[in-house]
Write a structure and sequence with these properties.
The protein is α+β, with helices and mostly antiparallel strands and about 325 residues long. The protein has a 5-stranded mixed β-sheet, covered by helices on one side. Strands 4-10-9-6-7 form a 5-stranded mixed β-sheet. The chain has a two-stranded antiparallel ribbon with strand order 11-12. The longest helix is centred in the first third of the chain and has 32 residues. The structure holds dinuclear copper ion. Dinuclear copper ion binds next to loops.
Length: about 325
């Protein structure tokens, strides 16, 4: 439209369907707005009072008409609902084989960490044709990580992980925005996501990471913070063994259970008394304020590396129907 792009580029597997749904809803709304407005104007003229003694006809109602204006809008609304819900569930369920990235929002920048150890600020490199799952959190206030070209965004909430996923389809450079007002320089909290062909991405990966993988950095932190003195692999320590725990369900001291995932590990490190595993005393100190968000993510990756067979549990909103995924992993890109 006059050289001004109405929509951002469509660069993910979601983009076309999100746009189609959006256009459908706008078109239906526009059609009925115009139809109702036209009818109002037309009837105002047609049935206007022409002389002072005129009295309107007495109408009891019309069953077919009333049924029509109830049933047709219901069908249209249900199409919008079912279509939207289907898309929503797809977007909320990252495929198991997704590549994982950690993102931290901070006034006023985005920090990204790849499990291979590469770190970036206001820039994110990802390959095409592969689902990418991003764990998002914030170091200070509420932010919102937004990839317009991928038609996806999620709040970055201090104190917990949220997540989004996408599968980029087109190499190129696209915007990253913060989509939640977060202070003076909110509008400057922007970045670029660089989508590369898998081969190029592999060589980009090889060029980074001088300080080891996230799991390596986490292992170092794990011993620096003396976690090793209690969390013995044998299970005989004062804390539970952390081997092969990811995705398992554990019983807690209060009789309830919890599934061990990134969110559980995060809470247990920062607020260690919250969900103590049954059979253990709540001896562990809190590490709130002692570990940076990036250190925390590295620690979690280290603990995940102790469960080599586990695929990360995905918070399920619906029981079945795994989200569609395309291509297989490029060689050597496993997590
Ligand atoms: Cu961060 Cu707006």
């Amino acid at each position: 439209m006059g050289g001004i792009p109405l929509f951002p580029e469509q660069a993910s597997t979601f983009a076309a369907e999100v746009d189609a749904l959006y256009i459908f809803i706008v078109a239906v709304s526009a059609f009925f707005t115009l139809a109702v407005s036209a009818a109002v104007v037309f009837f105002a003229f047609k049935y206007r009072r022409k002389h002072a003694e005129e009295v309107g006809a007495h109408i009891e109602g019309s069953l077919p008409l009333e049924l029509a204006w109830s049933i047709i809008p219901t069908i249209i609304a249900m199409v919008m609902f079912v279509w939207g819900a289907k898309l929503f569930y797809e977007m909320r369920r990252p495929p198991d084989e997704a590549l994982q990235i950690y993102a931290v929002g901070k006034q006023w920048m985005w920090k990204f960490q790849h499990t291979g150890g590469q770190r970036e600020i206001n820039e994110l490199h990802v390959p095409t044709g592969r689902p990418i799952r991003v764990f998002v959190t914030s170091e200070d206030v509420l932010h919102d990580l937004y990839f317009p070209a991928f038609r996806t965004k999620i709040d970055a909430i201090p104190g917990r992980y949220t997540q989004l996923w996408f599968n980029a389809t087109k190499p190129g450079r696209y915007h990253i925005f913060c989509a939640e007002y977060c202070g003076t320089k909110h509008s400057g909290m922007i970045g670029t996501v660089v989508v590369m062909e898998p081969a190029q991405y592999q060589s980009w990966l090889a060029g980074g990471a001088t300080e080891g993988t996230m799991a390596d950095r986490g292992a170092k932190l794990f011993s620096d913070l003396a976690c090793t003195t209690c969390h013995l692999d044998s299970g005989q320590g004062r804390g539970p063994s952390l081997k092969d725990i990811i995705g398992t369900r554990v019983e807690l001291v209060d009789g309830s259970t919890a599934v061990i995932d990134e969110g559980y590990l995060r809470e247990s490190i920062l607020n260690s008394q919250a969900k103590v595993v049954k059979g253990f005393t709540p001896l562990m100190p809190t590490f709130q304020g002692l570990i940076s968000e990036e250190g925390l993510a590295a620690l979690i990756e280290h603990i995940k590396s102790l469960s080599p067979q586990a695929s990360t549990p995905v918070p399920a909103l619906v029981p079945a129907a795994p989200a569609p995924s395309t291509s297989a992993a490029p060689p050597g890109a496993g997590r």
